[in-house]
Each structure stands twice: as structure tokens, then as C-alpha cells.
Write a structure and sequence with these properties.
Blueprint (H helix, E strand, L loop, with lengths): L10 H24 L3 E9 L2 E8 L7 H15 L5 E8 L2 E9 L9
Helix pairs in contact: 1-2
């Protein structure tokens, strides 16, 4: 990674690292979804956040919101520092957002 003048990685490098981390996390999480004919794919991952699309039977399953929430928890547990996460699905009306979350970072209180 090429650091900027402030010692932070370039946005493109952060996006590539994030894409790699999310891909590895999905590799862990997808087997449970695939068993039921569903799945998820990364639409985009950059410094602004991650967009994951539900695919297969998850597109029309009545439980897709619960699957999306479980995916959100699983990705956040496996990808430190994950900021905005949008989980979407395609339908006859176009891309629909199921959930969108932003990580909340808790800072220890100073004395």
C-alpha cells in the first residue's frame, strides 16, 4: 500500500483491502446460505463502505431480512473496522435495499 502524506493508505488500497477482507468473510458465511439455494455477492467495496447483494432464492425468500441481518452481524464480526454496509437485492422493481447499517465505534472514556 502506498501511504498518503498523513500515513494513511490511499483510498484505492483501502478499498482493495476491504474487498479482500469481505470476500474472505463471505467465504465463511455463504455455505449456510447456499444450502437453501441462496447466496450473496459483493457489488462494491471502497472507502465509502460495502454493498452486498443477495442472490438466488434469497432474492424472493420471505426471510431475506433475517438473512440480511445475520449476514450483517457475520461480516461485522469478521471484518474489523467495517463502516457502512448495505445489503440489497434485485427485484422486478430494480435494486431494493434490505438493510443499511453503519458501525458504531465505542471509545473508552478517559479519566
Amino acid at each position: 500500500m502506498n501511504p498518503t502524506a498523513h500515513g494513511q493508505p490511499e483510498p484505492a488500497a483501502r478499498g482493495a483491502a476491504l474487498m479482500s477482507d469481505v470476500t474472505r468473510a463471505l467465504d465463511d458465511l455463504l455455505p449456510a446460505m447456499v444450502v437453501d439455494g441462496g447466496g450473496a455477492e459483493i457489488v462494491s467495496a471502497d472507502a465509502g463502505g460495502v454493498v452486498v447483494q443477495l442472490v438466488g432464492s434469497c432474492t424472493f425468500c420471505p426471510s431475506r431480512r433475517m438473512s440480511a441481518e445475520a449476514l450483517d452481524r457475520g461480516l461485522r464480526a469478521r471484518v474489523p473496522g467495517l463502516g457502512q454496509l448495505r445489503i440489497v437485492t434485485d427485484s422486478s422493481r430494480g435494486r431494493e435495499e434490505i438493510i443499511a447499517t453503519v458501525a458504531v465505534h465505542h471509545h473508552a472514556a478517559s479519566s
